[in-house]
Amino acid sequence: MIHSMTGYGIAENIYNTKKIVVEIKTLNSKQLDLAVKLPAELRMAELDFRNRIGAKLQRGKIDVTITITDTNMDQIAHIDGDIVASYYRQIQEISKNLNIDPSAHISEILFRMPGIFNTQEQKYDEDFIAKVGETIDQALDIVDGFRIQEGQTLKKDLLHRVELILGLLEQVEPYEKSRHETIKQRLTKNLAELTTEGQYDENRFEAELIYYLEKLDITEEKVRLRQHCNYFNESCDEDQAGKKLGFISQEMGREINTTGSKANHVEIQKLVVVMKDELEKIKEQLGNIL
Known about the structure:
Blueprint: E1 7-15, E2 18-27, E3 32-37, H1 46-57, E4 60-70, E5 77-79, H2 81-97, H3 106-110, E6 117-119, H4 126-194, H5 202-216, H6 219-235, H7 242-263, H8 266-286
Parallel strand pairs: 3-4
Antiparallel strand pairs: 1-2, 2-4, 5-6
């Protein structure tokens, strides 16, 4: 099943008074490019988190943000009244000694002074770490669902464009018979103009004509292109098919290019140009497939 590399997921859980939020964003990339932002207190578990995320998403540019907030506002930070009082006394004393009137907005000055806020040091036990891991798994499942949904849209578009290429290939066949006849007539005319009184060895001419037409024959290219297109369609149902589909599309491109170089017919070359255009659109989409 095709997975897109573009996805988004967010999950949250409550553990005691802690709110855990995990947000994951993914974009296309040739390799796994993983960036994890998390509180310093969770650094000891970062490697485990990275392995968990990489095993699930495998490839892409992945940005993960883990935030922890306390739902109990009383536990977040405290103002140390003793320190504030000490600052106040010192300001009053200095103002008196220097004959400076204390500011009417002294409270604004006090609350800018360092050390008046006491924040409790956060310590997370194994159960809390496990809860964070559980939240990561939930976010990963949401991202994976998003990727699958996007992948189905991409698959539909890819199959449609392959079908267009096959349809264009069918349009080539009517021009092949007329192409052979046109080449034969042109060679006959040119040969008659170059020989005395239009006399030449017809058997030798037929042999040379057959050799020339075989060099311009595109039957093998058409057969291989159909095979590659069918193989492409079959591979769309495989997991992690992005790179494989890329290789198949390269083979499709070779057959289309060879058909164009051997066509020697303006209408066939026009069809080849449209095939190339559809194939380029396929390659652009493959850049976002896992």
